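User: Last request for today: this protein with calcium ion, please.
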Amino acid sequence: MRVLVVEDEPSLSRQLETALGEAGYVVDCANDGEKADFMGQTEGYDAIVLDLGLPKIDGLTLLRRWRDQGLSVPVVVLTARGAWHEKVQGIDGGADDYVSKPFRMEELLARLRALIRRSGGQARPEMRCGGISLDPRSARVTKDGAPIKLTGHEFLVLSYLMHQRERVVSQSELTEHIYAQNYDRDSNTVEVFIARLRRKLGAGAIETVRGLGYRMGDAA
Ligand code: CA
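Assistant: Here's the final one, the structure of the complex with calcium ion:
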Protein backbone atom coordinates (compact mmCIF):
# COMPACT_ATOMS: atom_id res chain seq x y z
CA MET A 1 0.00 0.00 0.00
CA ARG A 2 1.38 3.33 -1.08
CA VAL A 3 0.50 6.67 0.51
CA LEU A 4 1.14 10.26 -0.58
CA VAL A 5 1.73 12.73 2.27
CA VAL A 6 1.05 16.36 1.31
CA GLU A 7 2.29 18.61 4.11
CA ASP A 8 4.43 21.74 3.92
CA GLU A 9 5.55 21.77 7.54
CA PRO A 10 8.89 19.86 7.40
CA SER A 11 8.82 18.39 10.91
CA LEU A 12 5.25 17.10 10.60
CA SER A 13 5.97 15.74 7.13
CA ARG A 14 8.97 13.82 8.48
CA GLN A 15 6.94 12.48 11.42
CA LEU A 16 4.24 11.27 9.05
CA GLU A 17 6.76 9.69 6.71
CA THR A 18 8.41 7.83 9.60
CA ALA A 19 5.18 6.68 11.24
CA LEU A 20 3.62 5.51 7.99
CA GLY A 21 6.84 3.78 6.97
CA GLU A 22 6.94 1.95 10.31
CA ALA A 23 3.31 0.94 9.82
CA GLY A 24 4.30 -0.84 6.60
CA TYR A 25 3.30 1.72 3.95
CA VAL A 26 5.40 2.98 1.09
CA VAL A 27 5.44 6.77 1.44
CA ASP A 28 6.00 9.68 -0.95
CA CYS A 29 5.99 13.28 0.28
CA ALA A 30 5.02 16.53 -1.44
CA ASN A 31 5.57 19.89 0.26
CA ASP A 32 3.47 22.10 -2.01
CA GLY A 33 0.21 21.87 -3.93
CA GLU A 34 1.78 21.85 -7.38
CA LYS A 35 4.02 18.88 -6.67
CA ALA A 36 1.15 17.09 -4.96
CA ASP A 37 -1.12 17.68 -7.95
CA PHE A 38 1.42 16.17 -10.33
CA MET A 39 2.19 13.18 -8.09
CA GLY A 40 -1.46 12.52 -7.29
CA GLN A 41 -2.34 12.41 -10.98
CA THR A 42 0.62 10.44 -12.27
CA GLU A 43 1.32 7.89 -9.53
CA GLY A 44 -0.87 5.16 -8.12
CA TYR A 45 -1.67 5.77 -4.45
CA ASP A 46 -3.87 3.79 -2.09
CA ALA A 47 -4.52 6.86 0.07
CA ILE A 48 -3.51 10.52 0.35
CA VAL A 49 -2.97 12.53 3.55
CA LEU A 50 -3.64 16.13 2.58
CA ASP A 51 -2.92 19.27 4.56
CA LEU A 52 -5.29 22.09 3.56
CA GLY A 53 -2.97 25.08 4.03
CA LEU A 54 -0.32 24.62 1.33
CA PRO A 55 1.92 26.84 -0.83
CA LYS A 56 1.15 27.26 -4.57
CA ILE A 57 -2.19 25.43 -4.65
CA ASP A 58 -4.20 25.05 -1.45
CA GLY A 59 -5.40 21.63 -0.37
CA LEU A 60 -9.10 22.25 -0.92
CA THR A 61 -8.57 23.42 -4.53
CA LEU A 62 -6.41 20.39 -5.12
CA LEU A 63 -8.98 18.03 -3.70
CA ARG A 64 -11.81 19.50 -5.79
CA ARG A 65 -9.63 19.32 -8.91
CA TRP A 66 -8.80 15.64 -8.29
CA ARG A 67 -12.41 14.74 -7.72
CA ASP A 68 -13.51 16.70 -10.83
CA GLN A 69 -11.02 14.66 -12.79
CA GLY A 70 -12.42 11.43 -11.43
CA LEU A 71 -9.54 10.54 -9.10
CA SER A 72 -11.19 8.32 -6.50
CA VAL A 73 -8.26 7.62 -4.15
CA PRO A 74 -9.25 7.89 -0.44
CA VAL A 75 -8.17 11.26 1.03
CA VAL A 76 -7.77 12.20 4.71
CA VAL A 77 -7.51 15.96 5.21
CA LEU A 78 -5.54 17.57 8.02
CA THR A 79 -7.47 20.54 9.39
CA ALA A 80 -6.54 23.29 11.82
CA ARG A 81 -7.75 22.86 15.39
CA GLY A 82 -11.27 24.07 15.95
CA ALA A 83 -11.77 25.04 12.30
CA TRP A 84 -15.10 23.27 11.85
CA HIS A 85 -15.72 25.04 8.54
CA GLU A 86 -12.54 23.41 7.15
CA LYS A 87 -13.93 20.00 8.03
CA VAL A 88 -17.22 20.77 6.30
CA GLN A 89 -15.49 22.20 3.21
CA GLY A 90 -13.08 19.28 3.15
CA ILE A 91 -15.81 16.65 3.25
CA ASP A 92 -17.93 18.58 0.74
CA GLY A 93 -14.84 18.91 -1.45
CA GLY A 94 -14.46 15.13 -1.62
CA ALA A 95 -12.44 14.16 1.46
CA ASP A 96 -13.25 10.76 2.94
CA ASP A 97 -12.20 11.65 6.45
CA TYR A 98 -10.31 14.28 8.45
CA VAL A 99 -8.16 14.67 11.53
CA SER A 100 -7.64 17.97 13.34
CA LYS A 101 -4.16 19.19 14.21
CA PRO A 102 -2.60 18.41 16.58
CA PHE A 103 -3.51 14.74 16.26
CA ARG A 104 -2.29 11.44 17.62
CA MET A 105 -0.47 9.44 14.98
CA GLU A 106 -2.41 6.34 16.10
CA GLU A 107 -5.67 8.04 15.19
CA LEU A 108 -4.49 8.99 11.71
CA LEU A 109 -3.16 5.45 11.15
CA ALA A 110 -6.47 3.92 12.24
CA ARG A 111 -8.43 6.20 9.90
CA LEU A 112 -6.11 5.38 7.01
CA ARG A 113 -6.39 1.64 7.61
CA ALA A 114 -10.18 1.88 7.64
CA LEU A 115 -10.31 3.96 4.45
CA ILE A 116 -7.93 1.70 2.54
CA ARG A 117 -9.79 -1.37 3.73
CA ARG A 118 -13.18 -0.01 2.72
CA SER A 119 -11.94 1.23 -0.66
CA GLY A 120 -11.03 -2.40 -1.38
CA GLY A 121 -14.55 -3.47 -0.35
CA GLN A 122 -13.53 -5.03 2.98
CA ALA A 123 -15.65 -4.46 6.05
CA ARG A 124 -13.63 -6.50 8.55
CA PRO A 125 -10.41 -5.09 10.02
CA GLU A 126 -8.62 -8.39 9.55
CA MET A 127 -8.34 -9.72 6.02
CA ARG A 128 -8.81 -13.40 5.30
CA CYS A 129 -8.33 -15.47 2.23
CA GLY A 130 -8.64 -19.21 2.71
CA GLY A 131 -6.28 -20.09 5.56
CA ILE A 132 -4.30 -16.88 5.21
CA SER A 133 -5.05 -13.92 7.39
CA LEU A 134 -3.44 -10.48 7.35
CA ASP A 135 -3.94 -7.91 10.05
CA PRO A 136 -3.05 -4.38 8.87
CA ARG A 137 -3.12 -3.14 12.49
CA SER A 138 -0.13 -5.26 13.48
CA ALA A 139 1.25 -6.02 9.99
CA ARG A 140 1.05 -9.72 10.94
CA VAL A 141 0.32 -12.62 8.63
CA THR A 142 -0.73 -16.11 9.64
CA LYS A 143 -1.42 -19.29 7.71
CA ASP A 144 -3.81 -21.73 9.40
CA GLY A 145 -3.16 -19.84 12.62
CA ALA A 146 0.63 -20.11 12.45
CA PRO A 147 2.62 -16.87 12.14
CA ILE A 148 4.47 -16.37 8.84
CA LYS A 149 7.51 -14.14 8.67
CA LEU A 150 7.56 -11.86 5.63
CA THR A 151 10.02 -9.23 4.44
CA GLY A 152 8.76 -5.67 3.95
CA HIS A 153 8.23 -6.08 0.22
CA GLU A 154 6.64 -9.51 0.53
CA PHE A 155 4.18 -7.99 2.99
CA LEU A 156 3.43 -5.09 0.62
CA VAL A 157 2.71 -7.46 -2.28
CA LEU A 158 0.47 -9.73 -0.19
CA SER A 159 -1.29 -6.81 1.43
CA TYR A 160 -2.09 -5.22 -1.95
CA LEU A 161 -3.35 -8.50 -3.42
CA MET A 162 -5.53 -9.16 -0.36
CA HIS A 163 -6.99 -5.65 -0.47
CA GLN A 164 -7.82 -6.22 -4.16
CA ARG A 165 -8.79 -9.85 -3.82
CA GLU A 166 -11.84 -9.64 -6.03
CA ARG A 167 -9.82 -8.85 -9.14
CA VAL A 168 -6.67 -9.59 -11.10
CA VAL A 169 -3.76 -7.22 -10.46
CA SER A 170 -1.19 -6.67 -13.21
CA GLN A 171 2.53 -6.81 -12.57
CA SER A 172 2.93 -3.11 -13.39
CA GLU A 173 0.12 -2.12 -11.01
CA LEU A 174 1.71 -4.16 -8.23
CA THR A 175 5.07 -2.55 -8.95
CA GLU A 176 3.51 0.90 -8.70
CA HIS A 177 1.96 0.17 -5.30
CA ILE A 178 5.01 -1.33 -3.58
CA TYR A 179 7.72 1.19 -4.41
CA ALA A 180 8.12 4.87 -3.55
CA GLN A 181 8.61 7.35 -6.38
CA ASN A 182 12.39 7.60 -6.13
CA TYR A 183 12.98 3.90 -5.84
CA ASP A 184 14.76 2.14 -8.67
CA ARG A 185 11.92 -0.08 -9.87
CA ASP A 186 12.33 -3.40 -11.52
CA SER A 187 9.08 -5.15 -12.37
CA ASN A 188 10.90 -8.51 -12.56
CA THR A 189 11.33 -8.43 -8.82
CA VAL A 190 7.55 -8.74 -8.43
CA GLU A 191 7.91 -12.27 -9.80
CA VAL A 192 10.57 -12.96 -7.20
CA PHE A 193 8.32 -11.73 -4.36
CA ILE A 194 5.41 -13.83 -5.67
CA ALA A 195 7.62 -16.92 -5.81
CA ARG A 196 8.79 -16.35 -2.23
CA LEU A 197 5.24 -15.79 -1.02
CA ARG A 198 4.15 -19.05 -2.64
CA ARG A 199 6.97 -20.88 -0.88
CA LYS A 200 5.89 -19.45 2.46
CA LEU A 201 2.11 -19.60 2.02
CA GLY A 202 1.62 -22.56 -0.30
CA ALA A 203 1.73 -22.82 -4.09
CA GLY A 204 -2.01 -22.16 -4.44
CA ALA A 205 -1.95 -18.97 -2.34
CA ILE A 206 -1.52 -16.72 -5.37
CA GLU A 207 -2.77 -17.57 -8.85
CA THR A 208 -1.13 -16.39 -12.05
CA VAL A 209 -3.70 -15.30 -14.60
CA ARG A 210 -1.81 -15.66 -17.85
CA GLY A 211 -1.19 -12.40 -19.64
CA LEU A 212 -3.07 -10.39 -16.99
CA GLY A 213 -1.39 -10.70 -13.64
CA TYR A 214 -2.05 -12.16 -10.20
CA ARG A 215 -4.96 -12.87 -7.91
CA MET A 216 -5.35 -14.44 -4.49
CA GLY A 217 -6.04 -18.15 -4.99
CA ASP A 218 -9.08 -20.08 -3.82
CA ALA A 219 -6.84 -22.83 -2.53
CA ALA A 220 -4.94 -20.50 -0.21
CA1 CA B 1 0.23 23.75 6.11
